């Protein structure tokens, strides 16, 4: 059995309590789900990112009332396909076409480089703001793994 100088149960708030003063200790962190806790990964912070995106969309919609010519990204001509190994979810390849393909491909490059499977990537807190990469997330979830 391995022994530690300090065991932290729960890594909420990005685990702000364990700082450099613990550098000489053997520290273990026990976390049920995501390092950083719910607020950091699925609660407060992601919802604020989505609220910011929604605010921008509302601003663009209302710009015409002030004679301001504004537009929001709308691309209905794009295409996305992800191939994953059945059973393991290992990403075998991806094909993305459209103006935002260079941005959308980044999570897939990350997954292929680090060996992250499709389900883990889809459920990870890794996102590029604005939330256009939800297209990739939804495609990964549609694989039915």
Automatic annotation (TrEMBL):
Keywords: Disulfide bond, FAD, Flavoprotein, NAD, Oxidoreductase, Redox-active center. Signal peptide: none annotated. GO terms for biological process: 2-oxoglutarate metabolic process. The keyword Mitochondrion does not apply. Its cofactor is FAD. Pfam families: Pyr_redox_dim. One of its GO terms (molecular function) is dihydrolipoyl dehydrogenase (NADH) activity. Its EC number is 1.8.1.15. The keyword Oxidoreductase applies. Belongs to the class-I pyridine nucleotide-disulfide oxidoreductase family. This is Mycothione reductase. It comes from Streptomyces lavendulae subsp. lavendulae.
């Amino acid at each position: 059995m391995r022994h530690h100088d300090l065991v932290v149960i729960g890594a909420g708030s990005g685990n702000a309590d364990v700082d450099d003063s613990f550098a000489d200790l053997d520290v273990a962190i026990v976390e049920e789900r995501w390092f950083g806790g719910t607020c950091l990964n699925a609660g407060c912070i992601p919802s604020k990112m989505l609220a910011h995106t929604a605010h921008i969309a509302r601003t663009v919609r209302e710009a015409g009332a002030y004679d301001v010519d504004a537009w929001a990204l709308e691309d209905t001509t794009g295409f996305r396909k992800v191939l994953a190994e059945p059973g393991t979810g290992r990403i075998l390849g991806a094909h993305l076409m459209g103006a935002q393909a260079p941005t959308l491909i980044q999570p897939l490059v990350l997954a292929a480089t680090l060996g992250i499977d499709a389900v883990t990537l889809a459920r990870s807190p890794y996102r590029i703001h604005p939330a256009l990469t939800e297209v990739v997330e939804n495609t990964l979830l549609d694989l039915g793994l």
